[in-house]
């Protein structure tokens, strides 16, 4: 688990990464058998993001805003297109089995390069590849293919970003993953309600898996040093050898057994630097707790009824509101100079004894619940 490294050496993986990109995003010739199965486990997903404070964003013209929306029209879902993630990006595949996030490296602005372009292009390519190659659930292959297209298609001249791709697949062996975390093995659960979450993580974005509002597992990050995450990069000749340029093969690779009702938080470091894992698990876990609730089926009903319950967090019965509230809470902390945060805790470890406050940053969350395709279809997410 934890520290297991990835490889991209097999011919099959390389072949998938070198496929003709002209077919990407086209409807598949045939729907995979799994997608016809009512009890197949999938990721029902919502997303929200908020850019860090920026005077330029506050004074963006209507023309500039239309251009921004057009640049992320590939996200398809209207509620996703309207989101301004700053230098972050994300994707949700219409296979309901693949999601991802990326965090563009802001230093490129000093080179006259918009950091969001690389991150958005990488996530767009990952979405298109996963929707065309619907049976490919190796996150390394998806990420490598997406990165290769960024490098080769000429749309982005330079840039870099962290990247995290998550896939959900059937456990064909139905065997426990070899790991030392007893929380990941639950022998009395129903095997048909179990699957494997595969993660390829380059840098300090990450994944938090939640069960019963408790932390089940946090995927490891990978950094060169303080505030210097691993990153995929497209470098102009003059910067080659002088800037970080990691590869997909450098990704942290982890596999986590999950089951129906588990909640998966895939997010950029803007979230994890400002909110502790236990807090995120408690807040996001509500959408796992209420997965069979009538209120969840009809979110507007939950909206109107929640004020009448003693626990204000019954309002979380609408998962989109959960995602939005988590990001908004993190944003408030990120601009609070007195807050106790994971960021300030890390600063103390590096010698800043009196460190406190959040870290102003773009914040992106992709919030998923493991559920069946039958329940997904009944909820009409898209």
What count of helical segments does DSSP give?
Answer: 14
- Overall number of structural domains: 1
Question: How much of the sequence is in beta strands?
Answer: 15-25%
Shape designation: globular
Biggest beta sheet summary: 6 strands, antiparallel
Alpha-carbon distance between the two ends: 34 Å
Low-confidence stretches: 1-9, 175-182, 290-298, 308-316
- Per CATH, the class reads Alpha Beta
Please state the structural category: alpha+beta
Q: What's the number of extended β-strand segments?
A: 13
Helix content: 25-40%
Fourth CATH level, the homologous superfamily: PPM-type phosphatase domain
Mean pLDDT across residues? 84
- The SSE order reads HEHHHEEHHEEEEEEEEEHHHHHHHEH
CATH architecture: 4-Layer Sandwich
Query: What's the CATH topology label?
Result: Phosphatase 2c, domain 1
Radius of gyration: 20 Å
SSE topology:
Layout: H1 11-17, E1 41-50, H2 55-58, H3 62-71, H4 78-81, E2 88-92, E3 98-104, H5 115-132, H6 139-153, E4 159-169, E5 194-202, E6 206-211, E7 214-218, E8 223-225, E9 228-229, E10 232-234, E11 252-259, E12 263-267, H7 269-272, H8 277-284, H9 286-289, H10 294-297, H11 299-305, H12 319-334, H13 342-349, E13 363-372, H14 373-379
Antiparallel strand pairs: 1-13, 2-3, 3-4, 4-5, 4-10, 5-11, 6-7, 6-12, 8-9, 12-13
Helix pairs in contact: 1-6, 5-6
What does this structure look like?
- Belongs to the PP2C family.
- This is Protein phosphatase.
- This protein is an alpha+beta fold.
- It has 14 helices and 13 strands.
- The longest helix has 18 residues, at 115-132.
- It has a single domain (37-379), classed as PPM-type phosphatase domain (Phosphatase 2c, domain 1, 4-Layer Sandwich).
- Strands 2, 3, 4, 5, 10 and 11 form a six-stranded antiparallel sheet that branches. Strands 1-13-12-6-7 form a five-stranded antiparallel sheet. It has a two-stranded antiparallel ribbon with strand order 8-9.
- Helix 1 (11-17) packs across helix 6 (139-153).
- The protein has helices at 11-17, 55-58, 62-71, 78-81, 115-132, 139-153, 269-272, 277-284, 286-289, 294-297, 299-305, 319-334, 342-349, 373-379; strands spanning 41-50, 88-92, 98-104, 159-169, 194-202, 206-211, 214-218, 223-225, 228-229, 232-234, 252-259, 263-267, 363-372.
